[in-house]
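Q: Got a minute? One more chain.
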Amino acid sequence: MSQGSAENVEATRLDGYLVFLFFLLSTATLFDGFDNAMFGFAAPDVRSTLGISREQWGFVSGATRAGVMLSFVFLLTADRLGRRTLLMVTVVGFTVFNTMTAFVTSTSEFVVCQMLARLFLTAEYSLAIIVVGEEYPARLRGRAIAILTSLATVGVMAMAKIQPYVLLSEGEESNWLHALGVGMVAAIQGFFGLDPDDSSWRALYVLSAFPLLLVLFLRIGMRETRRFTASSEDRDSGLQEGERQSGLAEQWKSVGMPWSARYRRRTWIVTLLWNCVHLVTAPSTVYWVIYAREDLGLSTTEVGDIVFWGYGGGVLGHFVAGYLIDRVGRKWTCSGFYVAAAVSIYLLYHVPTLSGQYIWMFFTVFSFGAAITATHVYASELFPTEIRATGYGWTTNLAGRVTEVVTPMAIGLMIVPLGGIPAAIAVVAVGPVLGALLVMRYAPETKGLTLEEVQIHLAREMEPTAESLD
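A: Always. Here it is, folded:
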């Protein structure tokens, strides 16, 4: 991007459109938390209906999370087709496959529907962060991304309060929300000639379709980002007519750019950070509801209350991180909360009292919320506009998600040999500590810099030693 373009695309104030844009994009992160929580809360009931054991559930979860890695393909196309176009596609895809989950009849169908739902939702989440990073002023960028990611936590809190009214235990009296969901499931099953099944978890999935349709309608008012538009114009102005017609070849040529000598070091840094985070966050969210309901004997209402108040701490963590990121800096904020998260997750699974679950759920989600926010800021800042979505896709959605897919499976295999879920979780609690060490040793400090200034800083500070991580 030319210097003149860089000056024109940097926002100087928070205008009405940026507020409207933030509202539109907030739905992506809100539903990410909502859907993750729905998967966790529904786990015991889904396992019962489909006949899935505890050990097998780890493989089911890992397989569905493969969709997160496949979302990488969408982010590749976002650097050619634009952010807005892909955001429209992703909300349609997620709505379709998440709703279809309500009607699966086997484990394999459940895995396929949830894998594809996660594919579209993760791509949508990633694009939302990229768009906010490109559109918001440098002085507000860290806080804007922090608030945006905090809404995933709000989505979990919302699901925590909704699920006791839908996931009814046998003998519990129905209510209007449960009746609406079950009635919709029965009507659609009858229309398509499916065997009737009024399992409560099916109602939970079918009810999620309503707000998503509203989101699709509202997104029509969104514009393409100024940085992407300027970057596309610069790129096209430097191409001959014949070269413009080979857009697909040009797109695939840029796929490997984040791993070139110029960008390889920053790609490795963000990739390793995400793997350290997901080493713990993936199995903890997959197994906590099972641990709480089946090992501790907590009811769906108690589980919902713990998650609600715990994820209230997560919202606070995002806001605290947003403040510290722009005031103290990325490095100390990220590394400090990584260590706090490791300690908290260990204690969550080793203090089995009801009060202990409330306390350590709060501190676990607070710490991870702050750590994840800081990592998202790094992932959205370190690549230039022309390959930002591609770099983000490689680090955050593909290479950075290996542990998210593999670790739940490994935890499932360790449960019996190690004597239970808490012992298996303890093995992976070291992950964020390793991440903190990586941040302090290798991560750059980008506080207060525009995205264009970040590239100048990285070229000066990191590229001379790009071979150090080869």
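A: The chain is about 80% helix and 0% strand.
Q: Perfect, thanks.
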